[in-house]
Design brief:
alpha/beta, Rossmann fold, 3 domains, five-stranded parallel sheet, 26 helices, 50% helix
Length: 540
């Protein structure tokens, strides 16, 4: 009986008749033996396809209740747990499977991708290293190995892995997309774009390829094409992309609107600051703007855009965001496709000036911080930040504090720490070695209070920073800022491919790494500039 019900279920599945398939599989699963197990496996697949993961889990757990060692059921359960964001549970199941079947490439491949998503690329690389004996004949394994190597900074190893994957399977679209991304990171733009375009034709869901194409277009200053490709970001099943917010109002296209337009932030803090530069443009088109943003940014945005109704992001969204006066909605970054399609569309077009500044710090807090810092040292007030904790690009964007020793010693100044995280040991070590003191203000914590951090940055005469949140805050405030921009994997799209000026922030002066990992020449250039730099005239 179960065999006929299984055959009937497969027929329904082939035709997309899912309710009928579920009924037949449920009946077949009620028996015993291999047919019942097969029915439960198929039932879990159907529920997974229909977006009902809890019921898919129940079917697999029924198999495991009968046979706790069933590797296929455990593997599928781990995959579902990974998709649902239950990383700890998925990792435990994958590692249990590896103890039983250490040579399983699918298990190693999926565990490595899970660890990558958990920002543990070194562990992911170890998992794949153990499989490379047989994995060298698997395009899937070589593609995953290449991703792990790339995220660990081994660009040569990553390239070799992607190229081997494509020799094994020239139609492996994901390996080709990965190679294209790597070529973009190493500056081989034409070759990278060619690989990405080819990957688009090979992949059924090329959304992440489109996102990488968008970044490449932005780097080259091709903004219109970049924004068009960037609209695929919400389809990208990647840990760097956030899901869309659940707003049902129609999409705003930039037309004049009688009523409010809801603009909602979607990226990290730095990106929300970048894209907030377009809020004034949106205000000229809409009767009112309602802005949902990262909660830490809400006080700063509310002060900077007093005519905007600023709402901290929450889940579920605040009731204000469903009010009947909201006529349309748009993701914050998508404003670029309306207002930033040409280089001439950017207001911040003069390097080293405050042109385009759009954020405003608390004036009283700024004055208080400036007065206090001036009492603690001599010379101009200079803020320092030298590290990024971005899981993927952070290592390439970061340096050691001691790398700045020569620059800091070239002239008298009062240095203020803008670096988030625990840096007390680094700061103490620098002072012991060089005698250079860096003020650490425990009253300001940018991870909790972005408004106070903005006031701290606004209190300074100059900010010297790597590519991180400090650069965005300083640029948006119009503070004189020297940003140290990495080459290769650490290069972010908003800095562009070349030049000293940043279109998004007029007060930034970009110092660029000549090669990935090589800070020396950049620091020598910056040291010479700092020796001759004249502080601006500031009203305390």
């Amino acid at each position: 009986m179960a065999k006929s019900e299984l055959a009937e279920a497969r027929s329904h599945m082939a035709e997309g008749r899912w309710p009928e398939a579920i009924r037949a599989l449920t009946a077949a699963a009620g028996g015993e033996g291999p047919d019942s197990r097969e029915a439960l496996l198929l039932l879990s697949q159907v529920f997974r396809r229909l977006g009902r993961p809890e019921q898919a889990v129940q079917a697999l757990e029924m198999i495991l209740s009968r046979d706790p060692s069933d590797a296929e059921a455990k593997f599928q359960l781990a995959n579902i747990a990974s998709e649902m964001g239950a990383g700890d549970g998925a990792e435990r199941l994958y590692r249990e499977l590896l103890q039983a079947v250490p040579d399983s490439l699918p298990v190693r491949n999926n565990l490595a991708n899970l660890l990558r998503g958990l920002h543990r690329p070194e562990e992911a690389l170890q998992v794949m290293d153990a499989a490379m004996g047989q994995g060298r004949d698997s395009a899937d394994a070589m593609s995953t190995y290449g991703l792990c190597a790339m995220e660990c900074g081994d660009l040569d190893g990553a390239r070799q892995a992607f190229e081997r994957a494509l020799r094994l399977d020239p139609g492996h679209g994901q390996a080709r997309a990965n190679l294209g991304e790597l070529l973009l990171l190493t500056g081989e733009i034409a070759a990278g774009l060619a690989e990405l375009e080819a990957a688009r034709r090979q992949l059924d869901s090329p959304a992440q390829v489109d996102v990488n194409l968008a970044y490449a277009r932005f780097l080259e200053g091709e903004y219109r094409a970049g924004w068009e490709a960037f609209e695929s970001r919400f389809d990208a099943a990647a840990p760097t992309e956030r899901p869309p917010r659940p707003f049902t109002q129609r999409r705003w296209r930039g037309e004049k609107v009688a009523g409010a337009v809801l603009v909602w932030g979607e990226q990290g803090v730095g990106d929300e600051i970048v894209f907030a530069s377009m809020i004034p443009d949106a205000m000229r088109r809409a009767e009112r703007i309602v802005l949902e943003c990262e909660p830490r940014l809400a006080p700063l945005f509310a002060r900077s855009f007093p005519a905007v109704d600023v709402v901290p992001r929450s889940d579920p969204p605040a009731p204000r965001l469903q009010a009947p006066d909201i006529a349309a909605q748009i993701p914050l970054a998508s404003l670029g496709g309306i207002f930033r399609n040409r280089r001439e569309d950017f207001p911040a077009d003069t390097a080293g000036t405050a042109a385009g500044a759009y954020l405003h710090a608390d004036p009283d807090l700024r004055r208080g911080l400036r007065a206090r810092y001036r009492q603690l040292g001599e010379g101009p007030l200079v803020g320092l930040s030298w590290r990024s904790v971005n899981a993927r690009a952070g290592p390439a964007k970061s340096m050691a504090l001691t790398d700045l020793s020569e620059l800091l010693a070239v002239r008298p100044a009062t240095f203020v720490n803008l670096q988030y995280g625990d840096v007390e040991t680094e700061v103490a070590d620098l002072r012991q070695r060089t005698g250079i003191r860096i003020i650490q203000d425990s009253a300001v914590d940018q991870m909790r209070d972005m408004d106070a951090f903005a006031a701290q940055v606004a209190a300074l005469d100059l900010v010297i920073t790597v590519s991180n949140t400090a650069a965005h805050v300083a640029g948006a405030l119009g503070r004189p800022t020297w940003a140290m921009v990495p080459a290769g994997p650490g290069l972010r799209w908003y800095w562009g491919r070349s030049g000293v000026a940043c279109p998004w922030y007029g007060s930034l002066r970009l110092y660029r790494q000549p090669m990935p990992g090589r800070w020396h020449g950049l620091l020598a250039e910056m040291t010479a500039a700092f020796r001759d730099w004249q502080p601006p005239s500031v009203d305390d």
